[in-house]
Design brief:
single chain; about 210 residues; alpha/beta; 9-stranded mixed sheet
């Protein structure tokens, strides 16, 4: 884990950029839809199974102006941008999202909800982590709750989170990728037993795309 000096990024005009790319959304409600992904560096949650550990330390990633990021997104046909991490709630995202909206771009975020959210969002995917529960404000505003299942304890965590979200929030369970074969049948059985849940697959990994 890495402690984040949030003051460095307070104005939100530059962000530690891990990567940016145009692809298809692979998880949750928007699976299969084209979007421009912006992965921001910086996370102090430290999930042991994280598949983006390179994003934890923001100091190893270049500070890139949001004007450059937006310009790159506009070079593609994307009508939506997904901001992910790392943990994007650590940063001031109001400047980025407001400028994207000037261009008619929809804004989506995938977050564990570590800090209260900034920015203007069309879709909020909350993926809470047991070791660092989200700010309570996220439960009221989340459009989608996506809980990663690593072991059996995560089902209890999923139900705890589901009990707090708003009535319109769509519920997903998704196996941690390295344990997909081990977990998927149990997840399917769980969803059949509790049909308020949906299964989320990491479709991009099956398609072998970013």
């Amino acid at each position: 884990m890495n402690k984040i000096d949030e003051s460095i990024f307070k104005d939100g005009l530059q962000l530690p950029l891990v990567e940016e790319f145009y692809t298809l959304q692979g998880e949750g409600y928007h699976t299969g839809k084209a979007a421009y992904f912006i992965r921001i560096g910086g996370c102090d949650i430290g999930c042991r199974w994280c598949d983006s550990k390179i994003s934890w330390n923001p100091s190893i990633h270049p500070l890139v102006s949001i004007e450059t990021i937006i310009s790159n997104a506009l070079k593609t046909p994307a009508n939506a941008v997904v901001v992910t991490g790392g943990e994007p709630s650590l940063f001031n995202l109001e400047p980025l999202t407001s400028k994207l909206k000037v261009h008619g771009i929809k804004t989506f975020i995938e977050t564990a909800g570590a800090k209260p959210l900034t920015g203007q969002w069309d879709w909020i995917c909350l993926s809470p982590k047991r070791q660092s529960p989200p700010d309570e404000s996220f439960f009221k505003i989340a459009n989608e709750l996506k809980v990663i299942i690593y072991d059996d304890e995560d089902y209890h965590w999923a139900e705890e989170a589901a009990s707090k979200v708003n009535k319109n929030c769509i519920l997903y369970l998704q196996s941690e990728w390295s344990r997909y074969e081990q977990n998927i049948l149990a997840i399917v059985d769980y969803v059949k037993t509790y049909p308020k849940w949906n299964v989320s697959l990491q479709a991009h990994k099956f398609m072998h795309i970013p």
